[in-house]
Amino acid sequence: MTLQDLIDLKAKALAEAEGAADASALEAVRIEYLGRKGLLPKVMQALKDVPGEDKPMFGKTVNELKNELTELIRQKQAGFAGSGASGGEGFDLTQPGQWQALGTRHPITQITDRIIRIFQTLGFTVADGPDIETVWNNFDALNTPADHPSRDEQDTFYLDNGDLMRCHTSPVQVRYMMEHPPPVRIISPGRCYRRDTPDATHSANFHQVEGLFVDEQVSLADLKGTLSYFAKELMGPDVKVRFRPHFFPFTEPSVEVDFTCHVCHGKGCRVCKNSGWIEILGAGMVDPNVFQSVGYDPAKVTGFAFGMGIERITMILYGIHDIRNLYENDVRFLSQF
Ligand code: PHE
Question: What is the whole-number distance in angstroms between the Cα of residue 208 and the centre of ligand 1?
């Protein structure tokens, strides 16, 4: 067999495969050339009688023939299978479909979205800010005294350049007020960081939703009305809400907000340590010093702010006992929500 014979053979093989009208004709071509007793093994044997100078070119052409023919047959086979035509192995419409694993949204995302939707019905819009903050946005502008324990390196992650990982989403409110004149009606969901040792209820990285409402003549009654509405939307119409005096540097007066226990509905049980109440939010009337920091006139505007931990609410609503479950991303856990 000469090199020219081989080149002719290659052209013939490819033309035959190209011309095959159906899957069985194609299979016949495959057996004729590529089969164990086909032409190609014979060509390989002929290689040893080819004159020395033709050998490299001959070998190369054999390889091309084999690869191009294999690929062409594969493509044509796929074409026949896809069309279901020509009596080949067609596409079987009665075959069961392929099973696809469906993902779910993370429970933290689901609860965050739920909280956002409740406040959106009241006209709040979502405001966003960076995880890395300045000390001024995170503490100073929020009237946090220089010796406040939350500023301590034991509690807050500081970066080498003096910035920090925000320990609440309140700095978003500072940013927003610096850029927008009143009135303000925003909520800011996001990630927060604190130097907590991880255990069943603590994580160094967690999520908050905070809210801010500023206008003329906003009062504590507005705060109570808004958060009572929120409680009922989140927990159901039977939930009761109680406001306890508290202290935050950025609000005066400040309150902590408890909801009746979702397990015993206020009767007292293990979950609420027999008190009947579960603490859910921190809130208060924005301190005039905060307004001064961001350039608002405290004589003209008042406002209320509130903040809550999403993990805590998620754990309460779904009966999750260990916060770490929310971060291990075990699909068996996540697919339950
Ligand atoms: N920033 C507070 C916290 O992280 C929550 C809060 C927000 C309290 C707004 C009052 C007003 O605990």
Answer: 9
Residue 82 has phi, psi (to 5 degrees) of -65, -40
The rounded Cα 203 to chain-centroid distance in angstroms is 18
10-residue mean pLDDT profile of the chain (337 residues): values are: 88 90 89 88 84 88 91 87 57 82 90 97 97 96 91 91 96 97 97 92 94 97 97 94 96 96 89 91 97 97 97 92 91 89
Q: Is the CB of 307 under 6 A from ligand 1?
A: yes
Please state the three-class secondary structure of 35-63 as a single string. CCCCHHHHHHHHHHHCCHHHHHHHHHHHH
Span from the CA of 292 to the centroid of ligand 1 (angstroms): 19
CATH match for 107-334 among 3.40.50.2000, 1.10.10.60, 3.30.930.10, 3.90.1150.10 = 3.30.930.10
- Under DSSP, the state recorded for 308 is E
Ligand 1 centroid, distance to 274 Cα (angstroms): 26
Nearest CA to ligand 1 atom 6: 307
307 C-alpha to ligand 1 centroid (Å): 4
Query: pTM for this structure?
Result: 0.71
